[in-house]
């Protein structure tokens, strides 16, 4: 999906070549993943050039991130604290991230207040 979000419409070969050479999966592995994502409606075929199908992302990166995060929260019964605790302990969550989150929470709180 990253290749499609960054480069726009791509063939399976172009998606495969977007991986680093040392960790590049086989063409058939990428092809299988592309077809599975197509069935799930995460991407779609937009045209065919000779024998190569060209695919594009059918969902935005933001929508995919939201869905993934919602699914992750679902695993924790909707509780974000275990996830936040892990991010803090692993050093992934920075003080700047916390400040930005606080700004967003304050903005949402102001929007929720009746006028």
Describe this structure in words.
The protein is an alpha+beta fold and 115 residues long. The protein has a domain at 2-57: Winged helix-like DNA-binding domain superfamily/Winged helix DNA-binding domain (Arc Repressor Mutant, subunit A, Orthogonal Bundle), CATH 1.10.10.10. It is 58% helix and 13% strand. Strands 1-3-2 form a 3-stranded antiparallel β-sheet. β2 and β3 (52-57) form a beta hairpin. The longest helix is centred in the C-terminal third of the chain and has 18 residues, at 95-112. The protein starts with a helix and ends with a helix.
How does the SSE layout of this entry go?
Elements: H1 2-7, E1 10-11, H2 12-17, H3 27-39, E2 43-49, E3 52-57, H4 61-75, H5 81-89, H6 95-112
What series of H and E elements makes up the topology? HEHHEEHHH
Q: What general form does the structure show?
A: elongated
Tell me the Rg in angstroms: 19 Å
The first-level CATH class of the domain at 2-57 is given as Mainly Alpha
Largest sheet: 3 strands, antiparallel
**How many DSSP H or I helices?**
6
Query: How many runs of DSSP E, i.e. beta strands?
Result: 3
Counting helices, strands and paired strands, the structural category is alpha+beta
CATH homology-level superfamily of the domain at 2-57:
Winged helix-like DNA-binding domain superfamily/Winged helix DNA-binding domain
Strand content: 5-15%
